[in-house]
Fold these 3 entries.
Entry 1:
Amino acid sequence: MTTPHPDAQPAPIRVLVLVGRGRYEDPWHDHAATSHRLALLLAGLEVDGRPADVVVRSTFPDALDDLADVDLLVINAGTAWPGFREASIGPDDAAWAPFHARLDAWARAGGRILAVHQSANTFDDAPAWEQLLGGRWVSGESMHPPIGDATATLAAGAHPITEGLGQVDAFDERYCFLRVAPSSQVLGWVPDDDGNRHPVVWVTEAHGGRTVYSGLGHDVRSYDSPSHTELLLRAATWLLS
């Protein structure tokens, strides 16, 4: 039996931030800029004495080939530009199938996922993504009022992620009418312009892993909010605990 050296450093937490590109990017979101902010935020994370080692990578069919070595997968991707797939740009569905199969198997085997904003509207070529996420943006039903000052009310005392946080105030979009699985535990809501509450933050473990979804994070201004970044750090810490 090998005894660890007393000065040995704990293995770092491997965090992979997956950035929407090609069929998973859109005209409305600067995924590169927001992913950069996510990476900077999570680089300061430490859980049980283990520091974070953050890698940022665009969505390519081979982007998850080393997923088995990842502790936390952060999804910041969207839907394709209008006409992108119709123009047969980039790899086809068959070429992407191993990517989605790898993600599905890893997540169901206990993988930890933090998904933000437009991730509710990504991977529409992989129906199982909705199960891993615990919900979905539904074309023709889901929407958001114009971007502006937004407040997400958080569930008090319901979960370690939201305990004592109260609310998130950010300049952001308010996603409304998302389809949320009954098995998901909703932790945050935003109002529409009529004052009706809509789920925007939730957790799910129904698939065998752990996922936290936050509908916040339209652009970098949202990441200027201390309460938003605190929510994300709490989410990452819980996912890795």
Entry 2:
Amino acid sequence: MSPVLLDTGPLVALVVGTDARHGWAIDQLKSMAPPLITCEAVIAEACFLLKREKLDPTEVIRLARAGLFEVRFDFGREAAVLQELMTRYRDQPMSFADACLVRLAELHPQSSVWTLDRDFKIYRRNRRSSIPLISPFD
């Protein structure tokens, strides 16, 4: 099975039962083979969003400990590429988490990004290739 790269939106939707995309996220997850792949930036965004809504951010950590996802990203090794990506897409503007996921898509060429973010329809891996998405707007 091809790797799935986990973005913030679906992660939050999995945790928040009242989220408009919760049911969709649960249904999508049933067809995926954990562990999904993500980066620390996605985890930080998800924890921030949950805390802002007065929800428990440790649920994100619980899901990681349960094996749903793992971090396979080394910022130190990828910093120059991230800077280039964020510069190229500065008109979006590209978030740090999005840049990390685009880079992960380059590092895992058979992967798809599981996202609620339409900007991924614009982003390209290796400057030219669209990124396969798992999203409600496909």
Entry 3:
Amino acid sequence: MVQVLRKIYGFLIDSVQTFLIAAAIFLVIYLFLFRPYEVKGDSMYPNFYDKEYVLTNLILLKFQAPKMGDVVVFKSPVEPEKDYIKRIIGLPGDSIYIKDGDVYLNGEMLNEGKYLNSSVKTHQGAFLQNDEQITVPENMYFVLGDNRDASSDSREWGFVKKDSLIGVSMFVYLPINKMRIVANPY
């Protein structure tokens, strides 16, 4: 009887240790490396859909600056309690303007054909008017939603501060039938 109780006690101790180790690993990953993000709305359609879940790399931005074309999650400049997901179009020092529905980056029309249909036109906003050129300041980024007609983005509220960036989207994991890697098109 005593041996049976020792085996049960040993099993319980092993189970608790395994659970605690797994929980610690999960917390380290969740707090410091990767975090899930739910896409809310259609601002990134057709590349991201409402209610999809994206795994966001939190550590990448600690070691390198985001790149043009990265899809990032950041604290909203207009509603800081909300997180937004958008594509980086302009880096610090870049000049941007919109002309006849096309985005120009540093004087050249931006080729967005790898992630947008060629019929998509980019319209002006309150911050960026048609034919008005702006330069992205240091430690700031210019972001746009892929669904230009249904996105509140830098055209409306201006630049995103570097310290507002949370992470770079790496992988869509839900729904399972739409799993995919989020690749930078540039």
